[in-house]
Design a protein that fits this description.
Strand order of the largest sheet: 1-4-3-2-5-6
Number of domains: 2
Number of helices: 11
Number of strands: 9
Order of helices and strands: EHEHEHHEHHHEHEHHHEEE
CATH class of the largest domain: Alpha Beta
Bound molecules: pantoate
CATH superfamily of the largest domain: HUPs
Oligomer: single chain
Mean pLDDT: 97
Distance between the termini: 47 Å
CATH architecture of the largest domain: 3-Layer(aba) Sandwich
Low-confidence stretches: none
Shape: globular
Structural class: alpha/beta
Helix content: 25-40%
CATH topology of the largest domain: Rossmann fold
Length: 285
Amino acid sequence: MKVLTTAKEVREHYRISVLRNPGFVPTMGALHEGHLSLVARAAERCRMVAVSIFVNPTQFNDPQDLLKYPRTLDADLEMLSGHLRENDFVFVPSVEEIYPEPDTRRFDFGELERVMEGVHRPGHFNGVAQVVSRLFDIIRPSYAFFGQKDFQQLTIIRELARRDYPKVEIIACPIVREHDGLAMSSRNRRLLTQHREKAGEIYRTLIAAAAMISDYEINEIREFVADRINMIPDFRLEYFEIVEEGTLKPVHSVIEMSPEKKYFGCIALWAGEIRLIDNIEIGLR
Ligand code: PAF
């Protein structure tokens, strides 16, 4: 695998290897098994794979969060070297390479960004769209692989691709979980031991909430989730919403749900000072 740092090097790599339009896995580093599962999916499908590692400043609405975001480049490259092939590459640009001048573009995703993360992290998806579009312009992928853990991000990126990058096919990959069900995330390593020990409760709560759909109303399920999360010491629920796939329209009553559509229960919460998100499909049976 090659490690490239500029758009010029990427163009040169395409010229030399006579391959282009790779399968692309964008990341912010601090890689874990979840990322590796995206890389494996990309390698199965594409003759060339590109992985980017770039902690994108424009998507952090909290400067402290940006400062504290784990940066583990050497370990990341070591991990990737076991999975990437000769022509595959890791793109590790500087902030100046991605943003030679401040990016003032404003993306409007309408209702998709007026719920959940969009409400609690203002500007976050604008930053995500800025960096993903810059990366797509440089890498020019045929496929781009995103984890389903970031459920709303995935929906917004599908919309971005539909509008501006119709040649890029977005592939959603399943959530990879720790032994106790905690969704893998680069933030997990910042959890305090006592919070990490309790964090498996998040997924257990989501499973229980999904099972409640046949007998309870949405507000009762939301109350159940809030009670169960808030009873864990130092845990605080930020939101739990059941939304329709694709539109992200929140469901207020079970009567609104259609057996033809898919729904997901999405959660965001604080475990001490660490913010975690997760989701589960809610099936009408
Ligand atoms: O999901 C992430 O890690 C980031 O939001 C992404 C897509 C790499 C953009 O910085």
